[in-house]
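Request from the bench team (R.T.):
"We need a structural guess for the complex before ordering more zinc ion. Sequence and SMILES attached. Just send the tokens back."

Command: build protein-zinc ion structure.
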Amino acid sequence: MWNIEQFRKDLETVVNIDSGSFDRDGVAEVGKFFEEKCKAMGLITKVNDETQTLEARTHEDGPIDILMLGHMDTVFPKGTVAERPYREEGNMAYGPGVADMKAGLLIMTTLTERLKKEYPDMRICLAFNGEEEIGSLRTRDWMIGLGKQSRHAFVFEPGRAGGAMVMKRKGNIDLILKFHGVASHAGIAPEKGFSAVTEMAHWIIELNKMQDLSVGTSVNVGLVKGGTASNVVPDYAECFVDLRFERMEEMEKVQARVAELEKNLFVPNVTVDVEYQGIFGPMNPSEATKALIEKTNAKAAELGQTIEWVATGGVSDANHIGALGVPTLCGCGPVGGNTHNQAEFLELDTIEQRLDLFYALMPELV
Ligand SMILES: [Zn+2]
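Reply to R.T.: structure attached below.
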């Protein structure tokens, strides 16, 4: 029923294109591959060269029954393919991004090709993001825009061991804070110095006060840098902060607190730059998501599959859509593991399982 040979050939082709998030040419090449594939099956495609996104629809703009989402970038720099290109060994495939998530992208196009033929009225949109691994800062609004038009969303990040999918993800804010003070000799002219490190220290304390594990909010100042020597009042300091949330209100509270701190610095003559590296709303299963999970379980059972559902503190583009309340499933791709490291693998026999499952499920949702 599916041409798995062709799938694996395509998988080899796309895995063997280096497409680290900062490798614009590589991401563009992957985009080109999928653009051509989508055009060949008669989809309407829209490419944004600036933000490196590809949107492919069965119908002109308007409401979307099924949104399928994936990212073309990987965490691996240029040259990785030369070191360890795509290879198969028994049921396993290896290579940079094989599971996270080039196989998932091919599931999207393979499914759509058949769904479009069998169900021409089904309004499908495929969204290919070029910068998920670095936080989707420039592409977030585009995805949210698509999410708002969508009735269901499926994100084809790799499935977990045993075929588990993801129903719940924490929200995340990733911040870099850069403090600029005034340097001076700590012995000769301490009164002329304004310490960036002292300002940062205040922020660290204030941010940590926001942690409330009872509601799922955690704060981690994970990396700090600053100053040059003990006898110099430091004119520069920076820290990297990771905040996780289960609740949207908590996320908004923290953002408001950061804005407040920005306006009320502790040390005179110090300034701060707040740089958001990533903002992902929490994805909590709505009633509609729970209903979708039930339908998915029923379909899986008909096919002799069992799907486990997991919650994770990690984020993906599913957060952007799930946070809108749109029923969203993540981890819909074939099963893989060891992502973001060189032992990344994909279980080849799960390709067909996922194709079967979503091909049976999606038409029942429209
Ligand atoms: Zn991924």
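Two things stood out. The domain at 4-170+282-365 is CATH 3.40.630.10 (Aminopeptidase). The two ends are 23 Å apart (CA to CA).
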